[in-house]
Amino acid sequence: MIRHITSSALDRKYLALRSVDSAPITVDLSKMVVKKPWGYEHLLTGTPLVEIWHLFLDKNHSTSMHCHPNKKTVLIVLSGKAIFSHLNGSLELEPLDTVIIDSGVFHSTQAISKNGLKLIEVETPPMKSDLIRLEDKYGRVDIGYEGSEKMKLVNTSYVRFEDHSNCDIKNIGNCNINISFLEHKKDINKKNLKNSDIGVVLSGFIKSNTGKITHNTGDVISFKDLRKNKFNFQNVSLLSISRKK
Q1: Cα atoms in the Cβ-side hemisphere of radius 13 Å centred on 72
Q2: What is the domain extent for residue 86?
Q3: Domain-located, residue 182
Q4: DSSP string, 26-92
Q5: Where are the alpha helices (DSSP H) in the chain?
Q6: Does 174 lie in the same domain as 112?
Q7: Do 177 and 99 share a structural domain?
Q8: Residue pair 1/98 in contact by the 8 Å Cβ criterion
Q9: Contact 3, 109 (CB under 8 A)
Q10: pLDDT averaged over consecutive 10-residue blocks of the chain (245 residues)?
């Protein structure tokens, strides 16, 4: 299920009381694994407009209650279960559940499954320093994004797309991830996409049959909707996720 969390009056109240640490990050994050007190994250693929990150959270650990004032975030569960919290409620998430988080929304994610939690995080636009923490049980409320001392060079044990082209990553969190270029509606029936569940637009546009743009860079769409409705593709690069059969 895809859910959308929009900014509330409470989000805007707390955001107005805090300032963002916008110090530039000089490390090439594409080559790094970033160690977190709750686990780690590393970059799977990206463009100047959007980045796709893989996150792992240990059991019972959680991210801070934080927001990104200037970027939209999407979380997609690959494996495990989570409690996703925002200032006005919480959701329990299972594999392939997806949350679209508008800019300025304070949120936190906790792993509640014994083997931890694997997530895909979509950031539009890429801005790692765009971070404000409201609460954090690891003492990072007044600290920006992790420094170089928390990073190490990525190695072959961390899967990633080496370039932004047609390719597959199999069995990451019991899911298969694919990047494909789509020029026509019939392209969603390609063999490597036939079992896909969730799609993330990496570039280009998806339009309705009336020509209206329905999905832009960083947007998420279910393949059920793609197959059901009449869409047109314009230079679309799509990252697709499917449960491993």
Answers
A1: 15
A2: 2-153
A3: yes
A4: -S-GGGEEEEETTEEEEEEEE-SS-EEEEEEE-TT-B--EEE-TT-EEEEEEEES-EEEEETTEEEE
A5: 9-16, 223-228
A6: no
A7: no
A8: yes
A9: no
A10: 96 88 80 95 92 96 96 96 97 96 98 96 94 94 89 78 64 84 84 88 91 93 90 89 84
